[in-house]
């Protein structure tokens, strides 16, 4: 039979065949499949046309299968079971999975979003792997072509149509060595803030920042003595120096775990930013992907409540 001829037939009719093979009774099959007896009879007529065989014949002992029906019964059962598995929701068992998730992020995203995830992940899904890659100009393209699973970032172009999840709103704080003169002040004024040399952490290598734009609005500027691309190296660079760093507050708090530093409130209002999780819509209903996203977001929510 040509494949095009299959369009004439309804695969669900095979379910009726499978039931009749088991029950040998039209009434019982109708009840089992929540159908009327006439509906079962109509399906049987279609099956007879499909297989060009009587398939089931009435007798005093019920519906007796023909030789053709007996010959194809096992194959029909396999097809029906395979179809049921095909259209059933995908099941995902984290403890047995060795799935690899590729996530693009800066070290800010690794420390604030992914770090709380790893302890939980190793317990629930010890064989799952997370591969963290740097954010680049190709990250959105990689998310589109499937070589990347997730992207942690502030905002992306609305033209991309990626699925997304808002994680949190971030603010900015100042931080310096605990022996710095600014660390001794209860409240840091603008003149004192600008008096000292500044370090700028720019993970994506961009020049200019929210802070510089805000200072420009005030008709002021700062002296940037050091520009480097990492948040994680910043605490060590601040130690025993006169440098001042203005960074996202969550990063500043984490730096206190690394070195003896002091966080202070900025002497001006610096607009914060939203941090989001992005993925391609094709993964919206992927069971493994959904499980990973939900676990990640749950850990972020719990960290936010601490």
Kindly describe this structure.
With 306 residues, the chain is an alpha/beta fold. It has three domains: 85 residues, Winged helix-like DNA-binding domain superfamily/Winged helix DNA-binding domain (Arc Repressor Mutant, subunit A), CATH 1.10.10; 106 residues, Periplasmic binding protein-like II (D-Maltodextrin-Binding Protein, domain 2, 3-Layer(aba) Sandwich), CATH 3.40.190.10; 100 residues, 3-Layer(aba) Sandwich (D-Maltodextrin-Binding Protein, domain 2). It is built from eleven helices and twelve strands. It has a five-stranded mixed sheet with strand order 4-3-5-12-6, with helices on both faces. A five-stranded mixed sheet has the order 9-8-10-7-11. The protein has a two-stranded antiparallel sheet with strand order 1-2. Strand 8, helix 8 and strand 9 form a beta-alpha-beta unit. The longest helix has 21 residues. The mean pLDDT is 89. This is DNA-binding transcriptional regulator, LysR family. It comes from Pseudovibrio denitrificans. One of its GO terms (molecular function) is DNA-binding transcription factor activity.
Identify the notable features of this structure and list them briefly:
single chain; 306 residues; alpha/beta; Arc Repressor Mutant, subunit A; D-Maltodextrin-Binding Protein, domain 2; 3 domains; 5-stranded mixed sheet; 11 helices; 12 strands; 41% helix; rod-shaped
């Amino acid at each position: 039979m040509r494949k095009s001829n299959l369009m004439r037939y309804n695969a669900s009719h095979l379910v009726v065949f499978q039931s009749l093979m088991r029950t040998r009774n039209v009434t019982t099959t109708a009840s089992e499949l929540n159908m009327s007896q006439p509906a079962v009879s109509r399906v049987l007529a279609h099956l007879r046309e499909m297989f060009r065989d009587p398939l089931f014949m009435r007798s005093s002992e019920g519906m007796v299968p023909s030789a053709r029906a007996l010959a194809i019964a096992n194959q029909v059962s396999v097809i029906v079971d395979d179809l049921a598995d095909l259209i059933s929701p995908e099941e995902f068992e984290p403890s047995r999975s060795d799935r690899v998730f590729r996530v693009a992020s800066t070290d800010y995203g690794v420390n604030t979003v992914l770090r709380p995830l790893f302890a939980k992940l190793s317990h629930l899904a010890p064989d799952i792997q997370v591969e963290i890659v740097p954010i680049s100009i190709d990250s959105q393209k990689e998310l589109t072509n499937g070589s990347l699973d997730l992207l942690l970032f502030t905002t992306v172009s609305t033209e991309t149509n990626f699925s997304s999840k808002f994680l949190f709103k971030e603010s900015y704080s100042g931080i310096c060595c605990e022996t710095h003169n600014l660390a001794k002040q209860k409240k840091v004024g603008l003149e004192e803030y600008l008096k000292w040399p500044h370090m700028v952490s720019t993970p994506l290598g961009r020049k200019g920042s929210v802070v510089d734009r805000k200072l420009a609005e005030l008709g002021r500027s700062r002296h940037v003595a050091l520009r480097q691309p990492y948040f994680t190296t910043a605490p060590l660079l601040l130690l025993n120096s006169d440098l001042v760093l203005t960074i996202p507050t969550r990063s500043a708090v984490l730096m206190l775990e690394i070195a003896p530093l002091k966080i202070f409130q900025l002497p001006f209002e610096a607009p914060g930013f939203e941090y989001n999780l992005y993925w391609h819509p094709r993964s919206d209903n992927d069971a493994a992907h959904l499980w990973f996203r939900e676990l990640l977001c749950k850990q972020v929510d719990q960290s936010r409540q601490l």
